[in-house]
Each structure stands twice: as C-alpha cells, then as structure tokens.
Amino acid sequence: MSPSQIIVLATPVFFVLIAVELAIGHRRQRNTYHLADAMSSIGLGMLSQTSAVFTRLLRIGIYTALFEHVALWRSDAFWTSLPGWLLALVFYDFCYYWLHRMGHESAVLWAAHAVHHQSQDYNLSTALRQTSSGALLGWVFYVPMALAGVPPLVFGVVALIDLLYQFWVHTEHIPRFQGRLSWFDRWFCSPSNHRVHHAVNDAYLDKNYGGILVVWDRIFGTFKDEDDKEKCVYGTRGLLNSWDPLWANAQVYAGLAHDSWHARSWGDKLRVWLKPPGWRPADVAERFPKPAFDIARMPRYNPAMARATRWFACVQFVLLLAGVSVFLWHADSAPLAHNTAWFAALLATQWALGAVVQGRISMPLALMIEAGALATATSAVGWTEWHLVFKPLTMVIAIILVAACALSISARGRFDAKPWVTMVLALGLSLAGDVFLMLDGLFIPGLVSFLGAHLAYIALFRQGVPWFARRGALVATLAVGTAMYAFLWAGGLPAALRGPVAAYVLVIALMAAQALGRARVLGTSAARMVAVGACFFMVSDSLLATSRFVQPLPMAQFWVLSTYYAAQVLIVWGWLREPVSAPADAAPRVDAPEGMQATHALLDHRRAVPNRPI
Questions:
Q1: For residues 113 and 100, is the Cβ–Cβ distance under 8 A?
Q2: How far is the C-alpha of 451 from the C-alpha of 398, rounded, in Å?
Q3: pLDDT (tens digit, 9 = 90+) per residue, 164-200?
Q4: pTM value?
Q5: What residues have CB less than 8 Å from 563, skipping those under 6 apart?
Q6: Handedness of CA 124, 276, 207, 10 (dihedral sign)
Q7: Which of 82, 357, 431, 494 has its CA 20 to 30 A from that of 183?
Q8: Phi, psi of 213 (to 5 degrees)
Q9: 564 has which bridge partners?
C-alpha cells in the first residue's frame, strides 16, 4: 500500500476527529472553526498530497539513490528490528527538528513552510494545511539517514508516523497537562507546546520545533512554555489575506523574488533568500517600505459570503475531496500523462472554489472553469463519452452566464445590447466549433465556426477603441502568424487546406492584435486579462495545427484544450469585469463595473454576511 493510499484511508479518521473537536467547541461555546478558513486549510492539504505524486521523486527517489550508492553502513536486519525501527523514528524526528527550525530561520525554506502557519485559526484542520513545495529542498535534511543506511521503506514509514502524530496537537481544546501528566509536556510535542510554535507573539516566535519529541528544543535552546497570561495569536506576520491555494504557496516566494530583483548588490540578491525571514536589503526597504508588525492591529481575514455561496462551496468541497481521494488511490499505478491531466483538473477546481469563496468570481464562472477542466482531462485520458458531455457544457455555461448578466442589466432600463449580442455570438460559434471538431470528418465546418467566433471577438474588442491601437502588437502577431503558417506549410499542410488555414491564421492574429491594442487604450486589468486570453487562443490553435499537420505532440489534447479553455475563461471573466458601454447621453458610472454587478446579483451578494464560525 502506497503512502497516498494510507492518507486516503486516514482521511475519514481526520474528519471524525474534526467533527468531535467542532462539537466540543460548540458545547463549550468556544468554537475555533470558520468555514472558509477550514476549507482553505484542508484544501491546501489536498494540494500538498496531489502535488506529492510528482515531487515524491525528490524525497524518496533521491533518498533511495543515496542509500543504494553512498550509504556508509548497511544492515537491513537491524533497521527492521524493533530497536532499529525506534532508532529510525528518533533519528527522523531529529532531522525533522533541524528542517523545521531552518524553515523558520532561512527565508527560502520559510517560503515553503509558511503555508502551514497562514491560518488565523488553530484547530485540527490547520494540521492538514501543508506546503506543496517543501520537497524541493527538504530532502537535504534527511541525507544523514541515507548515509546511515536506513532503508527507504523504514524511512518512508517513520516519516508517515511522524507526520500523523502531529495531527492531534493542533487544537486549543486540550490544555497544558497538569499533575501526573505534566511529564508529557516536558518530553513530547503536545497541544500546548505546539500552540506556542504557531503563535506570532514576540514571546513565542520561533519556538518548539520538535515533531514528536520536544526534548530537541530543550537541548538546543528553542523551547518555550505556554503562558496562561499571554494568549496565543495565530497566523503569519505577513498576512496571506486570500483563499487562493496557488497564492498561498507562492506568496513568500514572490516577496523574496521582488526584493532580490530590486536589490542593487549582487550579494544582497542572494542574501535575501538565505537570511532569516523578514530581512531586507537597506536600499529595498527604503524604496519599498513595509509597516512594522503590530499584533494589536492584526485583522482577521474573513470576507463575507452569501448563504447560496456557502452551500455551493460546501457541495463543491465534498466533490473535490472525493475527486482527490480517487486520484490519490490510483496515482501510483496510473501513467504520468493521466496523473498530469487529473491533477490539473483538480487544481483548477480547487482554485475556482477558493475564488468563489473569496468573492473574486461568480459561481457560474467557477462551473465554467470546472467543466473546461473536466473536458480537458477526459479528453487527455480517453474518456470519450464524458468528454462529449463536458466539452459542449463548458460553452453552454459561458453563454448562460453572459446572457444572464445581460438580462440583469437590461432590467435596469439602461442597456446597449450590441456588445452582449456579439459576445454571445462569439461563444455560440465557439460552441458550434467544439461540437464539429468532436465529430469525424467535420474539421472544415469546425474551422469555419471558429473563424466566425474570432471575427465576432474582433468586433467585440473594437467597441469603444480604435482599430489596432498598438501597432507594435499588430506587427508582432502578424509576424508570429506568418511564421506559424510557414511552419505548417513546410510540415505538410494539405493543399486543399492552405487557403482556409491562411485566412484563419490572419483572423486570429488580428484578433490578438486588437485585444492587445484595446488593453493599451483602456489600461485596466480586465482589458489585459482579455488580451492574455486572446493570446492563449493563438497558442492553442498553434498547438492544434502542429499536432494535426506536422507532428503529433505528446499530450496534445491536454495542451490544446487547456490553453483553449484558459483563453475562453479569461475573455469571459475579463469582459464581465469591465464597464458596459452605455448610450452617449448616459451619465458615466464611477462605481463597480456593471458586468460584475450583474454577476454579483446572480450570487445574491446583497444578503452576504460576514463569514460566521461553523
């Protein structure tokens, strides 16, 4: 049985214990859970496990190679005996102590470990909140075990034991042990000891690193008792303020990259990554100042959620958990290409869920993203029947979303229908193209449908701005299109298709150029989003043409469809974020874009309330 399968089997136990903790909290009138925070923490745990399918090589693979070739002492019989197992567990916990400690004392290691500390709650769901990048450098700290000849199987088992032990210590409902149990706090990592570790209070900062044994902290001077007079405050000093799982993993890396890029000294560019977290070169701190941390002014991140959004999020979360469980159960025996496709679908679903909870996107847009992700995955793994469902469903959802927003705006009596009709036309022609390309022998009708869709997009992007406002973009896209067409011609493009493909390449290059020019004129993030979507269309069509006419590409369906749906989602999302064109005599709007207002109306945000505890 693989580690992933063990985690799947342990998951019901985790949730039973979370339910027990939640019940105890309600009974004591001291609930420590908030729905969005708990879903975010558990979701990051799911992402950690699904990404580990690909990063396990860095930990187990490198460890196994070192064990096989450079171990200084080999005695499998000893390490698989009871004393050997116990010694291996203590050895692992010692190495873990130093990894954990360096994770708080070196910025690049903190960038990975910070994910576990970002929650402002402290409960059993926090225990599941794990990094997805820890394996990149974490394996280095276990090299001594490989050199000592600890077999990979023993290493993997004790690593799992050490990890599972730490689950129960993430709770506020178990106080410091007193009386005859007080010895436990002195020797082992306990809830009290670990609460101190998670706190951002000055007195508690960077203490109690032990995984199972806290004796390492006592030996190396990093132990701190919990003080009943100073309540622990949880989170990180650089607040995340987001439910985005990708940003949760990237936040600290992005900050380090920013400071390293702007540092004038080459030495400082390196020191940014190696110094303790929070260290910044003087010149960077002067140009990009940050406010000093003040624990008294540490706000809780708790954006409002409508009741419908809460129900939507809960249902989506349960489905996501089921999908992750199935993925992990089969991952070790599945081909890499299949794992990649399903991982991408799960990641897209998880990101969409976080974006809905955060209020960044609407529920229909999330469904569009998820349907597109499932269409891509089912095509990549050869589930043809399901692909025939999800591919058209994606564009149907997009059409319904745009039409519903248009109807919501038109009900206010101030409405210019032309851009909305054009958008629906573009999406409808895209839907027709999707259907034609799914059927054998209908490539030309599919090509014509998408040609019409791109012409509709050009008309849409023309509204309110001049033609090709960014001439450099026009030159660049035409140059890329010309080069791509020459490549296809040289690669064996059939003579009968040279004319239609030339027209198609020209139109899509003009579409991208118009979108880029529009982004320059409007200067908004929404317009830039639309422009990026248009460029993704060029990428998707280039991959499709290369794989069809020149050379079949590895995982071609995955790359073609993932870039295609990225294009459609970005265009729809960006369009709905922008102000809608109004009649010339209408007063200008200074509040939120109407498209976004209509989307919010669909979500009933008027009844949104602060995210209450569970």
A1: yes
A2: 19
A3: 999 999 999 999 887 777 889 899 999 999 999 999 9
A4: 0.90
A5: 536, 539, 540, 543
A6: positive
A7: 82
A8: -100, 130
A9: none
